[in-house]
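Predict both folds.
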Amino acid sequence: MQPVVKVIILFLAAQALVCCNRPPASLSKQELLKYIADKQNRLWLEQEVNGITVRLSYQPAPLLALQEMEAYDNKRSDSLLYKTLEEKYNKNYYFLLKFSKNSKEAIRQLGGFDRYSEILQVLSFRMGNFLYVTTHQRDTLPLSDYYFDQSYGMTDGNTLLLVFDRLRLKDEKQFDIHLQECGLGTGDLSFRFLRRDLLQVPHLEAKLYDY
């Protein structure tokens, strides 16, 4: 076999491998949820300290847009509404922060009402003091906003939706989300995400929101 032919074959094989590993352009809602949950896609990270599991998972704009659209009482599910919501969410990066212990809400297992009440106040109003991002250039960016889901012991973990300014991270190959000790006894934690993993998340199939 001629050297040139070998080079061409190797190049085509490499291209085929890249195509096989490339995620699909669009998925159904359930498929997208599975894609996010698949550890190989590197969209969530988890650490356990002192019996408390802390998970941080990326929440793509298409999914958040669809969830908000589904929550409309009048069920106005159409492509224009979806696009408007997706544009709104595309301005930021969203991550779901979850604290759990023994598959239950962590803050209900800390011992005593006073401790529970104190941590509840922190999660509800003061988490901006404990969360920030650092870039590979060592710039520090604050948490833009967050929402604490008060679920009253009805779920398997306490969750917060974190918001970070997407524009300020547009040139970063990677960034670290830092969680400082906030009273749960986990100490200071860091979670590193690669921006390319976030950018290649598939879109939702059009038929989900246009009918």
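Second protein follows, with its predicted structure tokens after the sequence.
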Amino acid sequence: MNRILKSIILFCLATSAIYAQTAPAPQVRFKTNIGDIDVTLQPASAPLTVANFLNYVNKGAYANSIFHRSVPGFVIQGGGFYLVAGAPTAIAEDPAVTNEFKISNTRGTLSMARLGGQVNSATNQWFFNLADNSSNLDGVDGGFTVFGKVATSASLTIMDRIAGLPIQNLGAPLDTVPYAGASYVVVNNILYIPQSSAAAVQSAASFASSTGGVSPGEFLVLYGQNLGPATLATLTLDSTGKVNTYLAGTRVLFNGTAAPMVYTSSGQVSAIVPQNLAGRATVSIVIEYLGVQSAGITLPVVGSNPAIFTQNSSGKGDSIVIRNDDASLVTTANPAKADDILILYGEGYGDISDGPPDGTIVTGALLPKPLDPVRLLIDGKEYPTLYAGGAGGLVSGVLQVNFKVPTLTPGAHDIQLQVLDRKSSSGVNLQTK
């Protein structure tokens, strides 16, 4: 296979068109020495405040910081001090943010602290409301801005556990410091939580929704936020020549099995479904970035999900198909003719009866063999295939189908693959003359 074709296919896999998804509210994890507190931020209600908070997070200002105030039944407060050689030291303040009170200060909300009588004086300090404090905080000087809410009952338990610790008086402004044994309650770091959803999982070739199920060996794209690095990172090989399951800090786990990673970025990742899902009814998909895991996404497992790669990386239009004799790409300007031997590329053919481990670059010595027959349809009619299986020189999971072009009228013809009872999407073309 020529280098141009490899580049085309890798381009399709690594730069798939981003389909619009409804972005969930961002979540962060306060990692403390008592336990984790997960918080859902509220940028829709307090955009300036959330941006201000995340600016401190992004520059690591809250790493090794402490909860420096605890008032039982009222609040626990932090963000003002971090430890230097074990001693509390003030965190440098950025310019104050405009007050954005819209959400009531009820139990489990995260709010900005500020100077008494000064409405727009919030900088780096924040507090968790231990109870419903709306009656005394919502009406003070325009109200205290709520910019987050504790996300889980387990996190509320950690919040209450911190509030229940003994208090030490170290002198103002550290006269109500909660103490865990003989140490401060330390916020080791505040980390972004990867977020995606079942509705944000799609085929990497067709961009069809995966809510109906995923199949072993299928290439998936998962959309969301905080899934990986800001800059796109594409697949790499490990020392054995297989595609890495850890890429630029990202892993995608299918029932706990790390999948070969095609690419990763903050807003979308692509991975290859492990073959060990064959025969399972469902799968839980977890995205992990820098050790922080998303909530599990549960989807059905199906026997196959065939799809054809397209030249414009949209799942529609001209297919990626080349001539066997010269490896030239079949296009509108370079159509195929009757009796040409063509090679078509797809994925999602399901379980294999034999083949290499997940993520292996396929060689002629060990080609993945689909357990179930792969059928070729042109304009809805089945035509024979010369070969259907793993694609030599590409990662296991890419399907190669060789066939002879039948006599067809000139123009675009709908081409599909079928495995078991599932067909690839219509709207993918083969151009002929």
